[in-house]
Every structure is written in structure tokens, then in C-alpha cells.
């Protein structure tokens, strides 16, 4: 039996520990490992809340900033029990929840300041837990994004954690654009402040653009035994320099990634989706679930600043309770540049889509929270367009209903490492309209399982996005046999974790199964 340790910032196998797709992967991959008869331990930060119903296991004592630190390791109960899987959280007072999903901090004036502090502490505590054999005799450590890459820094440079050198380290890139860049020194949230006893290897650690900074995403790429992107096409994208906004590629790390590829350490393996034991929504509850979610948010102190908008959305929904639309387009996403740059760049293009929908008694439903400027833009559009229903919050019940009852899922991502939303929509038999990039290339086939748009410049892509939407409506209204065929093909697609994890074992874990 092989013994794995997963280290990440999110884990959707436990309640209230998800902000994005990473949480799904960290939930699903260990479950597939369990089915193969191996064991896995999954550890995330407690964010000052996730440990409260857990079982205390041990104190973890270590040195940071030349001072004694003590963190606490807890075992926590998952949403579902699986054999040979154990879930943990690490608590320390400085590992604070952020304003994004109560996990990450949005630090606009000094990016990654708060997050670097908590993940420096978290990763050092994990290293100490490995030293104390808290997870048993490990074979593989699987790290996810920059939040966990400090373990590779500790493995290479910290004399107290020589034990880490005995283990194989795999590093998964979920989003290359978020790199965890911090100053080497002269700052509380700097590597020299937290590890003053370690001489800094500037050449191996520095960011290519900011030579006075460490790049923690680059640390993962440079120091891991295997590096993994979450789709084959995203791997190809990031080997090429970015030319924003027309093309998002290696984001200054393409040389490091090319080197990893030449060394046989870089692999592109598509994420899977869950097709068993699905949390199924009940048909016909979409508008009811919107109203229920709105009433819940209206009672939250943190939502008072958008109280008027939530009430406006509720009033708008009541018309659709009695008079159902004939076509529902939906998106469920973090409101960020990655997901909605094209709409921010050209709101008039989105308004054209809303006007086209209005002519066929169609609505556009968007659910999400995120960057303030994106939330504000969508709220303003909602006030002006009756058929744009913007639910500015998070609700699992409502998300399930949206995936179940939409006719088209819209995903115009500027770039997409993999994407899970399109898989969930297709699982329900709904075609997607996507930008032909990254993992969306690997999952949506134009006019076979869905629709896609592309172009050589941003303006051309936006024009093609609107033209592709015209094509969608034309087929839906005028060619029902083709529409039904595309729907059926979408529903038949299977992006299984069984296949993906077999490739993990072969390429990432270097284990014969």
C-alpha cells in the first residue's frame, strides 16, 4: 500500500473549505486513490474556524522569525467517509480567514502579504508534522499551487527537515497566473523575516521580473520531482510567453516550464469530474432557490452594502416565477479578470447578447462573487436589463439548480487551466459556449458537444463570441434535431477521475498499477 499526503489551501471533502476548482481536485483525487487500495492524508489550514469541531491530535513546535511557534494538528470529519482517507487541519492564530470564501485575502495594495504569512506558517507546521510521523510513513507528497510550495523550499534548504528529501514531491499548477510573489527581505511578509537562519539562494528562488522577490509558484516548478498542469492544452499554452490580453501563456515562467518539460518533469493531465453519488438538485426549484438564497443573504451583516441590489434581484425574479423564460443562459464563476475579461473590456458586447435573448424570451443568470469592480459592473447591468439575473452571492443549492435547469452554459474565460463548470453543465446534458483555450479546448468540441469561439486579437474574439451566440440561438430556434444531438453528445461525454488518476500513477507518482 502506498501512502500519500495532499497539501493544499482548499479541500471540498470537508465543509466550507472551497473557493475554486482546487477544492474539487483535492476532494476527488484522494477518493480515487482510496479506490485503488492506497491511503491518503489531506491537510489544509484551519483558517481559525475549521478546527473547532475537530479532534486535537498534537502540538507542532517549530522556529520561525527566530522565535518559537506552536501550531495544532486536528483530524476533522469529511462530508463523506472513504476507507483509508484521513482529513486534517492545522490551526495557528496567524492563519486567518480571508475575504475570499473565508480562505484567501484580497490584498490590493501589497499582493499576497497576508496569504504568504499564513501559508509560511502552515507549510512549516506540515513539515514538522511529517517529522513527527503524524501521517505515517509517506511515499508521495502532492502539493497544490503556490500556497504549498514552501515545503519544497524547506526540503532543499532547511536543515531541520531533511526527512522531506526521502519523499517524492509532485506539484500541481491550478492557476499559473497567481504566483505568490513576495520580497526576499525588508518586510514582515518576507522569506528572510520568517527564515533568517537560511542563506537565500537568489538564483533558484527569484522572480524573473522582480529580482528582489521570491516567486513561490516558480519554486514549485523548479524544485518538484514532477510538475502537473490540469489539462494537456494548458500545458502547451504555458510553454509559450504571454501576450496579454490576446494570449495568456507562461506568465514569465515559460523558461522554467520549458526546462521542466525538457527534463521530463512536466505533464498535462486533464482533471476529471464526478459521475457517481452526485448531489442532485430537484427539477423546478430554480426560482424558489434564488429567493431562498436572497433572503438568507439579506440577513447577513456582511451583505448590508448590497442590500438594495439583493432586494432588486428578488423583485425581478418574481416575474419569472409566473412567466417562465423560454431559454436560460447561465454562468457560475468567480468574478475575476480570468473569467470575465471580455465582458469588462466590452460591456456593449454582453448587452448585445442580453438584447438578443430578450427577443426570444430568454434570460441570462450569473451567480458569483469576486473582484469589486466586476461585481459593480454586473450590478449596474442588472439594474438596466430585466433579463439579466445576477445573484451576487454563493449558494450550493442554487448552483445545483442552475446547472440542472439551464439551456446553455457560458464560459468566456480569458484563459482556463482546466475548468470544471463546463464538465458539470455537460454532465446535465447542457451545451456550453466557451473560449477555445486551455482545458476548454480539451473538453468542448464546436458543433459536436457545444460551441466555441476564438480569434487572434481580443476585439476579434469578442466579435466571434457574439457571432457564436447568434449561432447558438439559430440552432436552438430553427434546428431542433441538431440542438438535441449536441445536447445528447454533451451528456455522453465522460471525463473520469478513474482515467486521470491512472495517468497520475504512471507519470506523476511513478508507480506501476
From TrEMBL:
The UniProt record lists the EC number as 2.4.1.21
Which organism is the protein's source?
Cellulophaga baltica
Q: Where is the signal peptide?
A: none
Q: Which domain of life is it from?
A: Bacteria
For this UniProt entry, the molecular function terms from Gene Ontology, in alphabetical order, are: alpha-1,4-glucan glucosyltransferase (ADP-glucose donor) activity
Official protein name in the record: starch synthase
Catalytic activity reads: [(1->4)-alpha-D-glucosyl](n) + ADP-alpha-D-glucose = [(1->4)-alpha-D-glucosyl](n+1) + ADP + H(+)
InterPro entries linked to this entry: Glyco_trans_1 (IPR001296), Starch_synth_cat_dom (IPR013534)
| Record's keyword annotation contains Acetylation | no
The residues covered by the Starch synthase catalytic domain are 4-258
Q: Which UniProt keywords apply?
A: Glycosyltransferase, Transferase
User: What's any GO biological process attached to this entry?
Assistant: glycogen biosynthetic process
Taxonomic lineage per UniProt? Bacteria, Pseudomonadati, Bacteroidota, Flavobacteriia, Flavobacteriales
Has UniProt tagged this entry with the keyword rRNA processing?
no
GO CC annotations, alphabetized: cytosol
Domain Glycosyl transferase family intervals = 323-468
Amino acid at each position: 500500500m502506498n501512502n500519500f499526503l495532499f497539501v493544499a489551501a482548499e479541500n471540498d471533502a470537508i465543509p466550507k473549505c472551497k473557493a475554486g476548482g482546487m477544492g474539487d481536485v483535492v476532494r476527488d483525487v484522494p477518493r480515487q486513490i482510496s479506490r485503488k487500495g492506497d491511503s491518503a492524508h489531506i491537510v489544509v489550514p484551519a483558517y481559525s474556524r475549521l478546527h473547532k469541531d475537530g479532534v486535537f491530535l498534537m502540538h507542532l513546535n517549530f522556529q520561525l522569525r527566530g522565535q518559537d511557534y506552536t501550531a495544532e494538528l486536528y483530524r476533522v470529519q469529511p462530508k463523506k467517509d472513504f476507507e483509508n482517507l484521513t482529513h486534517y487541519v492545522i490551526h495557528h492564530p496567524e492563519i486567518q480567514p480571508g475575504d475570499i470564501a473565508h480562505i484567501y485575502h484580497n490584498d490590493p495594495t501589497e499582493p499576497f502579504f497576508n496569504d504568504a504569512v499564513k501559508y509560511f506558517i502552515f507549510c512549516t507546521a506540515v513539515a514538522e508534522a511529517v517529522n513527527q510521523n503524524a501521517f505515517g510513513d509517506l511515499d508521495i507528497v502532492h502539493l497544490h499551487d503556490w500556497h504549498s510550495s514552501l515545503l519544497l523550499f524547506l526540503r532543499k534548504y532547511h536543515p531541520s527537515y531533511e526527512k522531506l528529501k526521502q519523499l517524492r514531491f509532485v506539484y500541481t499548477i491550478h492557476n499559473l497566473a497567481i504566483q505568490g510573489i513576495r520580497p526576499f527581505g525588508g518586510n514582515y511578509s518576507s522569506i528572510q523575516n520568517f527564515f533568517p537562519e537560511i542563506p537565500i539562494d537568489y538564483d533558484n528562488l527569484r522572480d524573473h521580473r522582480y529580482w528582489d522577490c521570491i516567486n513561490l509558484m516558480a519554486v514549485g516548478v523548479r524544485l518538484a520531482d514532477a510538475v502537473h498542469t490540469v489539462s494537456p492544452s494548458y500545458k502547451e499554452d504555458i510553454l509559450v510567453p504571454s501576450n496579454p490580453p490576446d494570449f495568456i501563456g507562461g506568465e514569465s515562467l515559460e523558461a522554467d516550464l520549458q526546462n521542466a518539460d525538457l527534463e521530463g518533469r512536466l505533464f498535462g493531465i486533464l482533471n476529471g469530474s464526478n459521475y457517481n453519488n452526485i448531489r442532485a438538485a430537484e427539477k423546478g426549484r430554480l426560482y424558489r432557490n434564488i429567493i431562498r438564497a436572497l433572503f438568507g443573504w439579506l440577513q447577513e451583516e456582511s451583505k448590508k452594502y448590497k442590500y438594495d441590489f439583493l432586494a432588486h434581484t428578488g423583485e425581478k425574479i418574481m416575474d419569472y416565477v409566473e412567466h417562465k423564460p423560454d431559454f436560460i443562459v447561465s454562468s457560475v464563476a468567480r468574478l475575476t479578470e480570468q473569467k470575465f475579461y471580455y465582458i469588462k473590456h466590452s460591456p456593449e458586447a454582453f448587452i448585445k447578447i442580453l438584447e438578443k435573448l430578450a427577443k426570444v424570451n430568454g434570460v441570462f443568470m450569473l451567480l458569483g462573487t469576486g473582484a469589486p469592480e466586476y461585481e459593480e459592473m454586473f450590478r449596474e447591468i442588472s439594474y438596466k436589463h430585466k433579463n439579466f439575473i445576477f445573484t451576487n452571492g454563493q449558494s450550493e443549492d442554487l448552483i445545483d439548480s442552475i446547472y440542472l435547469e439551464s439551456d446553455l452554459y457560458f464560459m468566456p474565460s480569458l484563459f482556463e487551466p482546466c475548468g470544471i463548470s463546463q464538465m458539470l453543465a455537460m454532465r446535465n446534458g447542457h451545451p456550453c459556449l466557451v473560449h477555445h483555450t486551455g482545458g476548454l479546448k480539451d473538453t468542448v468540441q464546436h458543433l459536436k458537444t457545444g460551441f466555441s469561439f476564438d480569434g487572434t486579437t481580443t476585439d476579434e474574439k469578442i466579435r466571434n463570441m457574439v457571432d457564436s451566440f447568434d449561432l447558438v440561438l439559430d440552432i436552438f430556434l430553427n434546428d431542433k434535431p441538431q440542438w438535441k444531438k449536441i445536447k445528447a453528445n454533451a451528456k455522453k461525454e465522460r471525463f473520469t477521475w478513474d482515467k486521470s488518476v491512472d495517468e497520475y500513477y504512471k507519470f506523476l507518482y511513478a508507480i506501476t498499477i
